[in-house]
Specification:
The chain is an alpha+beta fold. The protein contains six helices and 16 strands.
Length: 324
Amino acid sequence: MFYSIKHLTKFHYASPVSESVMEARMHPRSEGNQRCLTFHLAVSPRCRVFAYRDHVGNNIHHFDIPGQHSYLVIVAESLLDIQLTADIPNSLPADAWVEADSMVQMGDFWEMLLPSEFAEPTPLLLDLANQLEVCRRDDPLSLLRELNQKLYDWFEYVPKSTKVDSPIDEAIKSRQGVCQDFAHIMIALVRSLRIPCRYVSGYLYRRAQDHDRSVVDATHAWVEAFLPPLGWVGFDPTNCLLTGDRHIRTAIGRDYADVPPTRGIFRGHTASDLSVAVRVTASTEAPELDQVLPVPEEWSVLVEKAQEPPPPPAKNMAQEQQQQ
């Protein structure tokens, strides 16, 4: 199956800022059953964009806009080919815990075993683990299948109920959150079992018959656990799924702090507003990357302005301010 993705991000500043420095993680990975055939990133105001690959294979673009500007628009377009994979079994043999411990001991998995910024054990998490009976029993795959289902049943999916920097305790207290919260909670629980677990950011292609809880016009997040002899197995607790050909991987890390779609700073003292639009379309043949996105008309005008040279840098540079 071929998937075309358009991901538009707009930062609007209440008053002009004098410089923006930004990283973007929007280039899908090529691995396993997934191949990113084409990728294009456009930025307005126009600037030079650089790219590199980090130590876990994520594709990262970064740029600096030195001139005054009151908006920043990023348009990422991708075309992917994703093949079906073999079905994951319902369970593993009885000695799977021994094999898993042996493989983990021989490998370099410490990053995905230790607590991280958004996936660390708290008293509320430990209490949740007791209620959900999260302990070593049966076999690792059966246990994680069960945990995936229990998290889906336990938590309600409520858009905007938490923020990108909300600790997991907020979602645990309210029993509601978004895909990012469910992923962080599952990661912390799985790591408590001494199973390597990592955060995956990307996109989910939605079909009406699937009844997914996650929203259609946003990025998505899920987890992958290392289970020998299967390797990294994906679990989506938001939608009670094992990941398949509808899940499109963009970046992997310990948690969201490692893989936000955009991260940067600007110089200036002003309020900012962030808008995001995502569209994922599927076809059996490679599509053209010229389909119209259901986004405000003004965005296309802003993208056209990327062809204009940026204004000269301001003489007085204000204090830097973090922008997520």
